[in-house]
Amino acid sequence: MVTIDLSHTSITDANQQIRDWARDGQDVEIINPDARHNIGVGLVDPITVRIKGSAGYFCGGLSDGAHYEIEHNAGWAVGDNIYQGSVVVGGNAGAIAGVAIRGAEIVVRGNMGSRAGQVMKAGTLCCGGNAAFMAGYMMYGGRIIILGDAAEKVGQDMSAGEIFVGGKIKSLGNDTMIVDMEAHERDEIMEFLERYKLNYSGDFTKVINAGKKLRYANAEPRSRPQPFFVSSKSSNYWNPKVQEDIWIKGEVGRYRIRGYGASKPVPHLNDIAFARDVTTDAARPEELKDINLKTTVGGRFGAKPLSLSMPVMIAPMSFGALSRSVKIALARASRLSGISENTGEGGMLDEQRAEADQLIFQCLSGRLGWNVKDMQRADAIEIYISQGAKPGLGGQLMAKKVTPELAAIRGIPVGIDLRSPSRHPDVLGADDLVIKLQEFREATFHKVPIGIKMGAGRVNDDIKIAYKDGFDFVELDGLQGSTGAASTEVLENVGIPTLSGVQEAIDGLAEIDAGDDMDLVMMGGIKDGVDVVKMLALGASCTSVGTAAIIAGGCIACMQCHVGTCPVGIATQDPEHEARYDIDRQSMNMHRYFESLRWQIAAITKALGYDDVHKVNRGDLVALTPEAADITGLPFRPEHRDTRRPLTGLELLDRQAG
Amino acid sequence: MCGIAGVLYKQAGDHEIGRTLIEMLDGCQHRGPDSTGFALYGEDKDLLQLRFIVPTDAKARQDAIDGIATLLERHDATIESELSVGCSYQISVNFDGDLLAFTKDIEEHAKLVSVGHTLDIIKDDGTAHELDDIYHVGEVRGTHGIGHVRLATESAVRPEAAHPFWATGFEDIAIVHNGQITNYWKMRRRLERRGFTFHTDNDSELVAVYLADKLEQGETLDSVLETAIADLDGTFSFLVSTPNEIGYAKDNLAAKPMVLYETDDMIAIASEEVSLNRLFPGQSINSTEPAPGTYQTWSRSI
Questions:
Q1: Which tens digit of pLDDT belongs to each residue from A399-408?
Q2: Pair A342, A542: CB distance under 8 Å
Q3: What is the mean pLDDT of residues B116-133?
Q4: Which fold has domain A2-209?
Q5: Is B2 marked active-site?
Q6: pLDDT tens profile B174-228
Q7: Which residues in chain B (149-178) have CB-CB distances under 8 A to chain A?
Q8: φ and ψ at A572, to 5 degrees?
C-alpha cells in the first residue's frame, strides 16, 4: 500500500502516480482528499484505491477494472462511465451517482442524490439509504437497488433495466410499471448485499419500463425516393414536397423526420467573393507544392495537436447513422489525404481506428459507446453540446438501424427508436463543464486536445464560454449542417447560418481579447476549396466537411437515411444493403475529392498572393449581397457578381488542366 | 454559471467571516474565474453604509464621486467618511429619510451596489485572492456572509454584473445565485409594473428584487423562499442573507449543486463540498445535499 497526500500533491500528479503504481499492481491510499475532484480518473489497471475522507466530482470516473473505496462522501457523478470495477462510498453520494456505467458495481452506504444511474447501460448501482428524485433517469440497462426510500419519478424515461426499491416510492416516472420480482432476482440481490456487507431482509418493489413509449406509435410509410436536390430546388411555398409532407403528417400525426440539413436558402459563402480576380493568376500544378496548407488544431494548452495536411477535417458522423463500411472508407480516405476522421456519436470501431491516422472521439449526452479505453487511443476528444442540424436536441436513430451489433457497442436495448438525451447528465452549465473537461484531461493525461462541438445558436455567448472553460478547439456547425435524422421543422428553422456563426464567433472572441490560440473549426455547407479559403479568410482556422465527403463516397441524396433503407449501403445497418458498398472504390473517390480541395485551396491561396493559406484574411473578401455584408461587415460590392466572379471548383480545375 | 458560498456563526461575536469566505470561494474558483463578490455582515453601525461602483479612469471617477455628492445633498444625507478603492467608492452617511425613494433616485444616476447598517458588498472582476489584495476582505470580521464566483455567460464581465446583488430598496439584504431563471422577462415585467427598476440584464438581480418586494410586504424569509421556488422557473440554487439570517432555496430539478454542513456553532453552505472541506482540512465532514424544491433559513443569536 502506497500513500499519496493530496494536501501537497496536485490531482494531476496524484493521478499520474496512481497510474504508475497501478501498472505495478500496487494498491494506493489517498489521504487528505478534502473533496477534491477527479480522484483516480482514467485507471485501466485492477488495483484498489482507498480514499481516506471525502471525494469530489467524478471520483473513479472513466475507468475500467479498478476498485475504489471512499471512506466518506462522494460528489457528483461518482463512478462515471466505469466498465468493470467497483466503487464503495462509505457516506453519501451527490447527484448522478453511477452515471453511464457499463458494468461496474457502485455501492453507496448512505443516501444518494438526484438522477442516480442516469443513462447507465449495465452493472449495479446500490444505495443503502434513500435515493433523491429521478433515480434511474433514462437508464438503458443494468440494475439499481435502493434499500431505503425513493423520491419522485423513479425510472423516468428508462428504456430497460430494473430498479428494486426496499422502502417507499414517492412516485413513478413516465412509462414505468411495477411488476412482481422473480425468485432468482431476489437471490442475486441478496448475494450482492452479502458481498458488500449490507444488512437487509425486507421486500422490494420492482420497477421496469412499461414499453409504451420506446417506439413511435405510427411508423412513417415508405415514400418514393425524392432526391434532395430536386425537393429543395424550388423557392415556392407550395410544391409536391410540401404536399407530400402534409399528407404524411395527416397519416402519422406528428412531425416528420429526415436526414440532410436545411434546404431553405440562407446567406452563405456563395454571397461572398474574393476582392481580386483569382482567375487571372492561375498557377501551374508544380508551383502549388510550395504553398503551405499544413494546419494544426488543438495545441492551446500543450496537448499534441492534430496535424492536418490542409485545413480540412471529416465531420463527425456516427457508426449507426452510417454503416460500418462507410466509417471504414471515411477513415481510410482521411489517412490517404492526411486529414482527420471523427467517430461522431455511438463509439469507435476497431477498423476505423486502424484505418485513420488521426481520429477524433466524440462524447455525447447518452454516452453511447463512450469509454476510457477508446478515449486513450483517440488523437483528440470532442464533447458534443449540439449540432447545426438540430441545436438543443439529441440524436435520433430509428429502430431499423438499432441492430444487435449496434446496440451492443452503444449499450442499449435492440430495436428501440433511440432518441438520445438532449443534455449531458453531468453538464448543466458552464461551471459543471469546467470540471467535466478536467475529468477528460485527467483520463487522457493532458496529452490529447479536447474540443467542443456546438450548433450555431447564440454563438457570441457560447464561444466565450468555450474559451473561458479552457477548450483547445471549437467545432462550430451552422444551420446548413446535416444529420442522419431530425425533425424537418427543426432542420429548417432552428439555429443560425454558418456565415452568421463564424462572424459571431470571431466577434465574440475579439470582445474578450481571446487572441487566436483556441482553434475554430467551421462546418455546415462547406462544399469545395473555394468555400474553405473563404472560411479561413473570414477567420476560421480549419473547416470540416461531412455531406460533401459522403456524396463523394457514393451518396445519392435519396432521403432514406432515417429509415435505414439506404440503397447504396451508406446510411443503413441492413447487411444486404451494406453489401452493396464498395469500400475500396468509395474510399478512393473520397480521397480524390479531398485532393481536389487541396488543389483548389492552394491555387486560390497562390492567386491571392500568399505562400501560406493561413495568411488569407478579411481584406481578401467582399460581400455580394446586402445580407452577407450585414452579417459579416465585409464591404458590399455588387459589381463583383458579374465581373469578378470567383471560379467554381470545376472551372478552376479546367483552367489548371489547360 | 457560478459557485456560491455562505457562512453564519450562530453566536454573536467577532468571527473571521472575510477569511472564511475567501477560503470557500477559492475552493470553487474553477466554477467562476471572471469575477468574485462578498456580502459581509459586521457590527451594526449608526450610519448608513453605501458602496458604489465607480470608473477606474481618474477623471471619470472624480466626476462620478462629485455626482454622488450632489445626489446626497439633494436628500439631506451628509457624508461622514469615505473610502475610494479599486472599482468602488464607499461612504458612511447620516440619513433618516425614506430609504426607498432615496435609493431609487440615487440608482438612476449612480451604480449603487450595497446599502445597509451592517451589510457591505464588495465585488469586482478577478479572483477571491485578487479582491483580498485590493479590498482587504480577509480582515473583515462579523457574524455571517455570502459570496460568489462568476463565469459570465450571457451578460458582460463588469464589476456591477458580479454578485452578490443587493435587494433594491431594502437595506441589508443580499443574494447570490447559481443557475438560470427562465421566466426572467415575465417576472421582470411584473416587478417593473410594481415600480421596481432593473440596472442589469442579469437574472440574479431579479431574484434580489423579487425577494425585496416580498420582504417589504412583511413576509418572513421562510415564506418568501417558499413562494420563490414556486414563482421562479429554471435551474437555481441561491443564498439570501439578512442582518440576522441566511437561507437557501433550491429549484425543483436539483440541477445546480449545493451542499451544507451544520455544527452547534455554525452553518456553512457551498456549491461543492470541496469549499466546505477548506474549513476543515483533513477531516471528513457530515455534509448533506438538500432535496430539490426545498429551502431553509438559519438565524444568529442576537
A1: 888 999 999 9
A2: no
A3: 96
A4: Pectate Lyase C-like (2.160.20)
A5: yes
A6: 999 998 898 999 999 999 998 888 888 888 889 998 998 888 888 999 999 999 9
A7: 151-154, 157, 178
A8: -155, 155
Mean pLDDT of A105-112: 97
| Interchain contact B235–A (C-beta under 8 A) | yes
Among A181-190, B211-220, B258-267, the minimum mean pLDDT is found in B211-220
pLDDT for residue B161: 83
**What residue ranges define each of the domains in chain B, with the CATH number in brackets?**
2-38+140-299 (3.60.20.10), 45-117 (3.30.70.260)
Task: Assign B231 a pLDDT band (cuts: 50, 70, 90).
Answer: very high
If one looks up domain A266-598+615-649 in CATH, what number appears? 3.20.20.70
Bigger pLDDT: A649 vs B112: B112
Cα B220 to its chain centre, rounded Å, is 18
Of B259, B271, B281, which is closest to A7 when you measure between CB atoms? B281
| CA distance linking residue A545 with residue A564, whole number of Å | 22
Count of CB contacts below 8 A, A vs B?
A: 111
Task: Please tell me the distance in Å from B27's CA to the nearest CA on chain A.
Answer: 9
pLDDT at B133 over 60: yes
Residue of chain A whose Cα is closest to the Cα of B157: A512
Instruction: Suggest the residue from B4, B157, B261, B273 to mutate for an interface test with chain A (most A CBs closer than 10 A).
Output: B273
CB contact under 8 A, A95 and B152: no
State the amino acid at position A420 in one-letter form: S
Out of B2, B7, B91, B249, which one is annotated catalytic?
A: B2
Helix axes of B221-231 and B203-216: crossing angle, nearest 10 degrees: 130
Q: Which residue has the cell 472521439?
A: A361
Which pLDDT value is given to residue A219? 75
* Residues A413 and A141 sit within 8 Å (Cβ to Cβ): yes
| Residue range B237-261, pLDDT digits in tens | 999 999 999 999 999 888 899 999 9
Residue of chain B whose Cα is closest to the Cα of A7: B282
Alpha helices in chain B (DSSP H): 17-27, 58-74, 99-109, 128-135, 184-193, 203-216, 221-231, 273-277
Give the pLDDT score at A232: 60
CB of A386 within 8 A of CB of A392?
Answer: yes
The letter for the amino acid at B109 is H
Q: Which residues of A touch B274 (CB under 8 A)?
A: 34-37, 56, 75
Residue A605's alpha-carbon distances to A504, A623, A637, in angstroms, are 25, 19, 21
A342–chain B nearest CA distance, Å: 29
The predicted structure's pLDDT at residue A655: 56
Q: What angle do CA B183, B188, B189 make, to 5 degrees?
A: 110
pLDDT in tens, A544-559: 999 999 999 999 999 8
State the Cα–Cα distance between residues A129 and B284, nearest whole angstrom. Answer: 19
pLDDT digits (tens, 9 = 90+) for A195-219: 999 999 999 999 999 998 888 777 7
B239 shares contact with chain A (CB less than 8 Å): no
**Of residues B32, B154, B287, nearest to A431 (C-beta):** B32
Tell which residue, B135, B185, B147, has the closest CA to residue B31: B147
Does B180 contact A132 at a Cβ distance shorter than 8 Å? no
Q: What residue of B is the nearest CA neighbor of A112?
A: B289
Do the Cβ atoms of A7 and B282 come within 8 Å? yes
- Is the per-residue pLDDT at A658 higher than 50? no
- CA A524 – CA A545 distance, rounded (Å): 8
Please tell me which residue of chain B has the smallest CA distance to A131.
Answer: B291
Find the CB nearest B282 among A34, A92, A114. Answer: A34
Is a pLDDT exceeding 60 seen at residue B104? yes
Looking at residue A47, what is its pLDDT?
A: 95
Query: Which one of A37, A434, A438 has the shortest CB-CB distance to B274?
Result: A37
Closest CB to B255 among A94, A428, A461: A428
